Amino acid sequence: MQSISKDSIVYTMSGQNKPVLHINPGEQVQFETWDAFQGQIKSPEDFVELDWEKINPATGPVYVNGAAWGDILSVKIERIEIEPSGVVLCGKGMGTMGSVLQNNTVKVVDIKNDMAHFSEDLVLPLNKMIGVIGVAPKDEAIPCGAPDLHGGNMDCKEIREGATLLLPVNVPGALLALGDLHAVMADGEIGVTGVEVSGCVTVTVDIIKDKKLPLPMIVNDNYVMTLASDEDLDTAVDMAVANMVSYLKDSEGFTIEDAVMLTSLVADVRICQVVDPKKTIRVEFPRKYLTKSL
Ligand code: CA
């Protein structure tokens, strides 16, 4: 299996980025990744002198041979391995509570036996996930810290082992890059970080041709999910719901009325995050009510 070291990183997703690796469809590839702070924070003191240019690096990009405009890139998350220590922080001007907080505070979180040690008395089960994952956008470069139609910093906790992320191919080769692993994070990410951690991600990448889907989407054993990001949370909800309804209508054969009613009855609308330049919503539709396979 080919792998990319975390020496090969980008801070924007862009069609101008030079690929560091070429792979064939169906191939597995391993990405070694930095945490969102590129390893700058190892103790609470490090937060003071942070280089804000080195934030949200993504490892890559990978050129997928044969991927052409209009195709869909399928990225199956096989394995997420994380380092034994991560950081969580909060502070003035950051996240939902940033106007209330006076100080910037960092907590170093040890990770052992599949648990994150928040304090001596409080350990949390891991839910390892990928914060930043995307392809080159259609038009101009987008910073890795922002989510959009190309993926990016969606900070969605369902982008985890076993899930398949579907992304649009906007440029030849797609140019897949990823990073920003979280050991633990809840929907919302209200404080501005999860337990940010470096690690290694193994994915299987494939190309789907001649299919139209409202991307980005996630598929796992139990759910089909649509994702949408916007500065305005209400707009993001409308977009993600419209995407789900359009999927149910165009790919599953429901009338628009049945698609709306069913979404209202069985699909949960959830917040991925509210702290990035655009906020991200996902709609989760149970696959047990669907007959067509994606
Ligand atoms: Ca993030």
Can you tag this structure with a few keywords?
binds calcium ion; globular; nine-stranded mixed β-sheet; mainly beta; 294 residues
Folded structure, characterized:
The radius of gyration is 19 Å and the shape is globular. The protein has helices at residues 233-250, 256-266, and strands at residues 2-4, 9-10, 12-13, 21-23, 28-33, 58-64, 72-82, 85-90, 105-112, 115-117, 123-125, 129-134, 142-143, 147-148, 151-153, 164-168, 174-182, 196-197, 199-208, 217-219, 223-230, 268-273, 279-286. The longest helix is centred in the last third of the chain and has 18 residues, at 233-250. The mean pLDDT is 96. The protein has a 9-stranded mixed β-sheet. Strands 2, 4, 6, 12, 14, 15, 17 and 18 form an 8-stranded mixed β-sheet that branches. With 294 residues, it is mainly β. Calcium ion (CA) binds at residues 36, 131-132, 153, 155, 180.
Q: Based on CA inertia axes, which overall geometry fits? A: globular
Strand order in the sheet with the most strands? 1-5-19-7-16-20-21-23-22
By DSSP (H or I, 4+ residues per run), the number of helices equals 2
**How would a crystallographer describe the biggest sheet?**
9 strands, mixed
What's the rounded overall pLDDT mean?
A: 96
Computed over alpha carbons, the radius of gyration is 19 Å
- N-to-C SSE series? EEEEEEEEEEEEEEEEEEEEEHHEE
- Uncertain regions: pLDDT < 50 for 5+ in a row? none
* Distinct bound molecules: calcium ion
